């Protein structure tokens, strides 16, 4: 497989391929998916290491009510990377705003998974988005607590700076068992197709490098400081088996934003929206109906 994923080869059976398009905005060539239809727009922002494939089922359900827009974040999937060392939260939100402006879309619902929830919240705080609500799916919105928060950033920077790290990780992903172990570590159980899409992604050194660059540039201190002034209603959906973002993070968030609604889902992990898309869609619909 080539370093970068090739759309005509790796994307030949990509989920919701009929919605896909490629657009160049400023310095980035984006892979974007926009569902047919009109009405309110739902923005879907995936987490670190994922791509549009992770919305494959949930997007189809939401598309019965919304015009859905999703994209591969910079350096992920089929979207080009940012310059080395620039994949920070402030830079990514500015690039994403430019993409939405280019598409002429003003989402009324912002849904983010893991780090995608932090992107959505930052865009709202900075006035780039004005949705009716934010939905955080196992959101990573706060700096890591304790020693993890001290050790993780420099280790991520070290790995991102080493081009061999991405190649070694991608090489190991050639073993399907390694992909199964990686997904299992999130607390989630995916079907064969779900495992295959993640395997396709992490066998790409370019995708792995994009993931490491984003991890290396991630700093949530400023977001933590600003979150108390978030006035848009937020729903936090938490998989109680999440092995990536501790379910206890929801309790930390409630101390920051007491008005946040939390829905806890037993038996689901970090990829809950891929495990049971209908359950997650129902929780979102009930929340939005109550606004």
Overview of the structural elements:
The structure is a single chain. With 291 residues, this protein is an alpha/beta fold. The protein has one domain (7-289): 3-Layer(aba) Sandwich (Rossmann fold), CATH 3.40.50.1820. It contains 13 helices and 8 strands. Helix 2 (56-62) packs parallel to helix 13 and helix 6 crosses helix 9. It starts with 6 loop residues before the first helix and ends with a helix. The model is unreliable at 146-152 and 154-161 (pLDDT under 50).
Number of domains: 1
- What's the CATH H-level superfamily name? Alpha/Beta hydrolase fold, catalytic domain
Give the total of beta strands.
8
What proportion strand? Answer: 15-25%
Shape: globular
Helix content: 40-55%
The secondary-structure class comes to alpha/beta
Task: List segments where confidence is low: pLDDT < 50 over at least 5 consecutive residues.
Answer: 146-152, 154-161
The pLDDT mean sits at 90
First and last CA, distance: 47 Å
Q: What can be said about this structure in brief?
A:
The chain contains 13 helices and 8 strands. The protein is α/β, with parallel strands linked by helices and 291 residues long.
Helix/strand layout:
Blueprint: H1 7-10, E1 20-25, E2 28-34, E3 41-45, H2 56-62, E4 67-71, H3 89-103, E5 109-113, H4 115-125, E6 133-137, H5 146-161, H6 163-172, H7 176-184, H8 192-202, H9 205-216, H10 221-226, E7 234-239, H11 249-256, E8 261-265, H12 272-275, H13 277-289
Parallel strand pairs: 3-4, 3-5, 5-6, 6-7, 7-8
Antiparallel strand pairs: 1-2, 2-4
Helix pairs in contact: 2-13, 3-4, 5-9, 6-9, 7-8
């Amino acid at each position: 497989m080539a370093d970068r994923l090739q759309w005509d080869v790796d994307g030949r059976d990509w989920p919701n391929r009929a919605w896909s398009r490629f657009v160049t905005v400023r310095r980035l060539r984006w892979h974007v998916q926009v569902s047919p239809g009109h009405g309110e727009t739902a923005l879907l922002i995936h987490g670190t290491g994922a791509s549009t494939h992770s919305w494959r089922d949930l997007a189809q359900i939401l598309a019965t009510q919304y015009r859905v827009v999703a994209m591969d974040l910079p350096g992920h999937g089929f979207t080009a990377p940012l310059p080395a060392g620039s994949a920070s939260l402030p830079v990514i939100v500015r690039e994403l705003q430019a993409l939405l402006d280019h598409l002429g879309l003003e989402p009324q619902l912002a849904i983010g998974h893991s780090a995608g929830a932090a992107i959505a919240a930052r865009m709202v705080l900075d006035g780039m988005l004005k949705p009716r609500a934010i939905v955080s799916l196992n959101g990573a919105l706060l700096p890591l607590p304790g020693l993890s928060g001290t050790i993780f950033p420099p280790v991520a920077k070290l790995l991102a700076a080493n081009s061999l790290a991405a190649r070694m990780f991608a090489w190991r992903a050639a073993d399907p068992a390694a992909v199964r172990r990686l997904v299992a570590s999130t607390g989630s159980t995916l079907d064969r197709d779900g495992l295959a899409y993640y395997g396709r992604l992490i066998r790409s050194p370019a995708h792995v490098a994009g993931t490491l660059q984003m991890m290396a540039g991630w700093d949530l201190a400023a977001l933590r400081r600003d979150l108390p002034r978030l006035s848009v209603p937020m729903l936090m959906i938490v998989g109680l088996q999440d092995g990536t973002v501790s379910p206890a993070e929801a309790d930390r968030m409630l101390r920051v934003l007491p008005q946040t609604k939390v829905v806890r889902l037993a038996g689901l992990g970090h990829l809950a929206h891929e495990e049971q898309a209908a359950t997650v869609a129902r929780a979102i619909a009930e929340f939005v109906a109550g606004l």
